[in-house]
From TrEMBL:
Keyword Phosphoprotein belongs to the record: no
GO biological process: defense response to virus
Keyword 4Fe-4S: no
Domain of life: Bacteria
Keyword annotations of the record: Antiviral defense, ATP-binding, Endonuclease, Helicase, Hydrolase, Metal-binding, Nuclease, Nucleotide-binding
Protein name: CRISPR-associated helicase/endonuclease Cas3
Amino acid sequence: MKFYAHSREGQDKALWEPLADHLRRTALLGARFARAFGLDDLGHAIGLLHDIGKYAAAFQRRIEGAAISVDHATPGAWAARRVFGAEVGVLLAYGIAGHHAGLPDGGDGAGDLLDRLRRLDKRLPDGFEAWEKADLPLLTKTAARLAFRGFADDRRLGDDLYRRAFLIRMLFSCLVDADFLATEHFYDKGKARRRRRDPSAGQMACLSEALARHMAGMGRGAASPLIAGWRTRILAACREGAPSKPGVFTLDVPTGGGKTLASLAFALDHAAAHGLDRVIYAIPYTSIIEQTADVFRKALREAGDDVVLEHHSAAEVPPSREEEGIGPSRLRLATENWDAPVVVTTTVQLFDSLHADRPSRCRKLHNLARSVIVLDEAQALPIDRLAPCLAALKALVQDYGASLLLCSATLPGLDRTAGLKVRLPQAAPLIPAAMTGDMAAAFRRVTVRDRGAIDDETLVAEMMAAHQVLTIVDSRAHARDLFNGLTADGANFHLSAAMCPAHRRAVLAEVKGRLTEGLPCRLVSTTVIEAGVDVSFPHVWRALAGIDSIAQAAGRCNRHGEGETLGDVAIFHPTRADAIPKPLADLRRRAGLGAEVLRHHADPLSPAAIDNYFERLFTLNEDQDRDRCWADMAKAPGLDCLPFRTVASRFSLIDDGGEPVIVPFDDEARGLIARLAAALASPVLPRRLPLDLLRRLQAFTVSVFSRQKLIEAGGAMVLDPRNDPEGRFVVLADGPAYDISVGFRPDLAGVRSSEGNVL
């Protein structure tokens, strides 16, 4: 009897994929991916075992069209434990059992790993004898144990359950990416051939040289000679530190210090020096991911159009809790595997993926091994999620050959600060201590004043009296009310995450033009402007916030040192109760500590003030693992009781509660929506959702609350209910719900607004 892994609807079996071929191809890919952390033998074994349940006669009937449900994943997990024993076997069993439905919880609860394995202990799985007769080249138990012991001993893993759990996650990633790509090879050989292969040895060096040539041709722009000179010195320090052995590094420079390209230069040089495979650049704000990716593409243009991948949640099919399908249906999951040389993503995408259980979310994780991870604005990590985030980064550095660069103008000592539940390995600063004093003096471009309590009416009057002024607040409603309070004269602008990225880019372009031409310009913004947005106002008002946020606001004032006098940053204490939305407890804590620092430090941006702020922040906030995502993994009863699914259901870096809605903002957006509708309705199987289309659509997406209520109120509609029954793609209806000045207006869309989110 012949056994098949995948069929082609309506075609002769001679064109179907033999099961042994799929297993071998998945095993070879799994081995290639796991080679990055020295476990290619286990990567091969997990690939070879993952689909042996398809040898069952019931599955072969299903693939021929029978309407039956067959669990083809558990037999491979059972075989892994039987062949390799309780240690290595369980390491592989989690990933095999979850390669469609997601990583399961360990333990013997209903549907958990041990429960599923024990059901098969009572009888030999159907098809097991056929698999044994296939005589596939499976690793011996002794060889598998030696491979794992070598990995564990080299890294001094000991009995650390968290790190073992992380290894399970990385092997799972190798498997599901290999399985996806092997399936794609059968169904879509054209796309498989177009995919990138393993990184070449000289690729990072070529990118480094391209960046160096680009930066050599850059002028100083709007920067003063003093600031331009310091940016050159900061870049040189980064490049000088690149040959250092892999580990944790810090780049602590003032805003406007050119850290975006300087950090990329370090990452590329460091990768080239140590043969690392790629750069993962993680940014906390969706509002600037497109801008940063565009800067990198321009800088690396001579190396090709596809060296930079931009990826955040809007660039993929929204998740489903259903089992991810088999065969062509699985290829509809347009998800990234981060196989590009430079990946620009969000910290939400990075850390949510590191704690996910779904195959489509986890397939990228193995590409973090032997990478340089740049964490921009590292101070923005939520305090109550800090322990699991730092534990994941620590594992990547300790066990998977990754290097980590932490960047910020207000960088907390995540390797040393008292009060941290999890600390990173000791970090090496890229800026020598001898430079820091002079650098701080050179970048002192503003004075910070505490103006005390100010109501909206007074603040609006202050703004109207100014020629060019920026006001930053913490809620969309507050920003909208201030903007509406300004007297309309063509010089007022608004910016918030209620506006789609394309809308924000258009507003910023007009604002920058007016600032350059010396025209009146008043901008009211939420925190979307506080990181990486290159604007410079002579006056900035900032609602009371943490010192890290105040420093970011100061970075939008006299940014390039172009003013003849120091810029003016005024901190005001809003009198309205909803200035910081109630769900944002972390922001409230930071604002309270910010007020204390303002009272006790003449210069709240001094190194002493910043250190004092973070030490108090970490010490006063002992709950750094609010949902026990780190503790429950690290302190599980045993290797077979790890709570993968439970952790995935609990962990979310930001409690935004938002869901994406596509905005028909302009003709380009409407054209992309039409293309998406055509792709969903395509009669050609598998229906593919092109990644380039989804990437472009993210420029026209906003995050909204109560999306279902919005649909029920007629403010939005599912694009194609017939071909998208789960309603994953929702389009905003034409009408007043999207305002050309302030973006999405839930109050005009028939739903109650929620301010439980700051993006």
